[in-house]
Amino acid sequence: AIQMTQSPSSLSASVGDRVTITCRASQGIRNDLGWYQQKPGKAPKLLIYAASSLQSGVPSRFSGSGSGTDFTLTISSLQPEDFATYYCLQDYNYPPTFGPGTKVDIK
Amino acid sequence: QLQLQESGPGLVKPSETLSLTCTVSGGSISSSSYYWGWIRQPPGKGLEWIGSIYYSGSTYYNPSLKSRVTISVDTSKNQFSLKLSSVTAADTAVYYCARLPMTTVPGDDYWGQGTLVTVSS
Question: Closest Cα to residue A69, out of A6, A18, A19?
């Protein structure tokens, strides 16, 4: 199975900060990658598909980039509602695999 | 608006079989480019893909669980189900059913609220 890693595993940031999360695949996955946000006690929510396309209804402060093995999720100006855990997901090969997550909390 | 709801026992004994059902309302289990799947999350940990079923009825399981997992669909009831056999404490998790778009396809994701299943005697 393709292994996904994320860095950092956690970060502390302030409202208004620019935040970047990295996801790396153990082999090339083209752009077969999505980003999900999960808040405590809630199901995940899709933010980005095809590595860089913004899901409908998701604020434009979220953006994704990358292709192949290296991907990033950027939040351009962190808002209070963005404090959550973020996961990447690949489905280039079955089974789909999630990254271990990056927890973004309040500084 | 599509809605998914998990149901099943919240407590399962070790070595027994975990059984969960996902009831879908507001739409049918018959769309291409989507996974109808089960995903779990142990307390305080990350997400693990268990398996999925496509609109065609084909099933695909995570190899790490394949020998213990069965996913089936009942289109007449608009439900799909998960069975996980020979459970241990390591199978304690919140189990989600979900309809997820393939990562390169635009589409909405829908999740159940999740159900905590504890494996304990």
Answer: A6
Q: C-alpha distances in angstroms, B39 versus A7, A40, B8, B27?
A: 22, 16, 15, 20
Contacts of A80 (CB under 8 A, 6+ apart): A15
Dump pLDDT digits (tens) for B86-119: 999 999 999 999 999 989 988 999 999 999 999 9
Nearest residue of B to residue A44, measured between CA atoms? B111
Distances, alpha carbon A104 to alpha carbons A21, B93, B100, in Å? 10, 22, 24
SS3 A37: strand
Give the chain A residue whose CA is nearest to the CA of B37: A96
- Of A53-57, A74-78, B52-56, B68-72, which gets the smallest average pLDDT? B52-56
Give the pLDDT mean for A81-89: 97
Separation between Cα atoms, residue B29 and residue B79, nearest integer Å: 8
Q: Is B42 on the interface with A (CB under 8 A)?
A: no
Calpha distance A63→A76 (Å, rounded): 8
pLDDT, tens only, B62-75: 999 999 999 999 88
Length of chain A: 107
- The pLDDT of residue B33 is above 80: no
For testing contact with chain B, the best of A45, A49, A54, A67 (most B CBs within 10 A): A49
